[in-house]
Structure formats: C-alpha cells, structure tokens
Design a protein that fits this description.
alpha/beta; globular; 5 helices; 28% strand; single chain; eight-stranded mixed β-sheet; Dihydrofolate Reductase, subunit A
C-alpha cells in the first residue's frame, strides 16, 4: 500500500505561504548543502525547471511517483507556461472544482470525492504519493496523511497560510528522521501513529 506524505516547506511558526498563499520568500534561503540534500534525497520534488538547473533531468523518482496538488498550488506555474511541473513522476493530479479540462495530458484532474480517490491511489502499486500543497488540501486529507516531511526555514512570518486548517485535534506522530543544515533549515520526518 502506498503512503501519502505531506512534504512541505514552512516557516518556524508554521506558515507555508504569505496570507495570499505566495511562498516565493522560501527561495531566498537555499544554501548549497540544503539544496544538495533535497536533490539527493527527494529529487522528484524539484520541478522541471529546477531539475534542469541542478542536472537532475534524468534522475528517477526515489520516494514518490505521484504528486497531488491543489489548484492554487498548481496555478502559479501554469501562469508561467509550466503545464506539467512534475512530468518526471508517473502521476500528476490537481484537485479542483473550477478547472473543467486539464491544461496538459500528463496532468489529471480530481473534482469529486477526494478522500475516496486518494484511498484508491494509495491501494495501487508504486512509490509514495506526495501531497504537494496546499493548506486546504491538507485539511481535507488530514486523516489520510501517513507521513509528514517538514522542511523548516529560518523565518518567522507572524501570519500567513498555515500548514493546515484542520482545527484543533491532537494527532500523535513519531519522529523518524531529522537533519539540520548550516543555513538554518531543518528537515523533520514524522510517521502518523495510528
């Protein structure tokens, strides 16, 4: 059975974007050691343009062969002409009620029962499923997430888009990995205790 992993960048105070959802400020804190780690351990999570720049064009998926993103996560790249940001993975899904046709044959739309669709995807053979974002999608899928990989950047935002809007509920996690980098970033991995 495949796992659903919420692999996400966040500020120290738990925000994945500005109040309008923009997360470009994270790119100002990319030291070589951290980028090298992401390229080595999570190469499939780097979008096509970044992969070319880092020499990863031919790097096969290591942990995830499917990516699931909300429309607002997908839209900024789409506006720049990037219709298939993760064409190097087997399956790309965009969850949207407003898009009626996919802008790219490699991108499939999900508009119906999201939880049922994710359970169906998890039952298939393959590598893991990467929940790319954003907060609303993580909220809808909070009980389907099997693992959190949280990339914490050395910023305090004060307000913004939270990791989730699931509301208060203590959900026990087990720390399965942790790494700190010289630029102040950390990566923590947590398995959901069921």
């Amino acid at each position: 059975m495949r796992t659903l992993t919420y692999f996400v960048a966040t500020t120290v105070d738990g925000f994945i974007g500005a109040p309008d959802g923009d997360g470009d400020f994270f790119y100002g804190s990319l030291d070589p050691e951290f980028v090298g780690y992401l390229a080595e351990e999570y190469p499939e999570t780097i979008a096509a343009a970044g992969r070319a720049h880092l020499g990863l064009s031919e790097a096969p998926p290591k942990r995830f062969d499917a990516v699931l993103m909300g429309r607002r996560t997908y839209e900024p790249g789409l506006k720049e002409g990037m219709t298939s940001p993760y064409g190097h993975v087997r399956e790309q899904y965009v969850v949207s009620r407003s898009l009626t046709a996919s802008p790219d044959p490699q991108v499939r739309l999900i508009s119906g029962d999201l939880v049922a669709r994710v359970r169906e995807l998890k039952a298939r053979d393959g590598l893991g499923i990467w929940l790319c974002g954003g907060a609303d999608l993580a909220t809808q899928l909070i009980d389907e997430i099997d693992e959190f990989v949280v990339k914490t950047y050395p910023f305090f935002a004060g307000t913004g888009m939270p990791m989730s809007r699931a509301g208060f509920g203590v959900r026990p996690l087990e720390l399965t990995g942790f790494r700190a980098f010289g630029g102040g970033q950390t990566v923590g991995s947590y398995a959901v205790k069921r």
